[in-house]
Fold:
Amino acid sequence: MDDLTPLRYFRAAYELGTFSAAARACDVRQPSVSAAIARLEDRYDGPLFHRSRDGLTPTALGHELYSQAGGVLAQVSQLEARLKGHVARVVRVYCAPDVMMAPFDAGLARIRRAVPRAQFQFTDDALQADLQFVAESCLPRGCGFHPLWQERYGLALHSAHPLLAKAKLTLADLAGEALIARPYCPSADRFLTELGQEEAPVAGLRMAASAIHDAQLMELVAAGLGVALMPISHGEAQRGIVLREISDVDSVTRVVGVGYRKTGFAGDMARHFLNRESVMDAMPLASVAVI
Structure:
């Protein structure tokens, strides 16, 4: 019941004595708590706290609101606890076309264990999703993000491609090759820009096809239709292809993780996904897709 959120923030501030402590307890940022308290003060026509460097001191109005709100919030919490066991919780999930789902399976399983009636609904609209499995560069504006791993890009080749006989690949080796494009991936665009700056070695590079997501892209490479630029880790997801780095091009990398809408529900789902006490905690990057 989101309309009770300001009261929950107020109760946390009252009990903990500072807006920052209340924000940590409620798993939100401090401005959200401050703004909610300000709205309550406008509604009840008076200050709820005296502010000082030492923290918050409740006013008479603040003491009265706390005594009245405590019972209301307790009843609502009991009601929500009873209803949660009977109502499916729809969790909207977006997986970017250049991200593979498999590394996120364990996190989704953790959500299901924490919320047994969770129902995952996948969407192609990242802005409407509670959780987003994306590269950081593609995160919708205004969403939170937890990085999970960083990875490099390389050249995907059919497992029988003659170029695999070479000890290392260079730009000059790509001349005459058929390239399968990834128009949905900004990192691949940066890689192609770098290739385009070296006009002579890749003068014969030609577009053979354009994929709509990476699963299709790998199948096209495995079928021998052409070569493609993709994250090195994708080589483990598809039989029949091999990923190699191009030695004379500066490495292009991306950071992949889980994004989430800044709502209480989405924050809870991200917390369960990450198996953490708070989605505000820092999290180190992994070098491989293990979560």
Summary: The chain is about 35% helix and 20% strand. The helical segments are 5-16, 19-26, 30-44, 60-84, 105-114, 186-196, 214-222, 264-274.
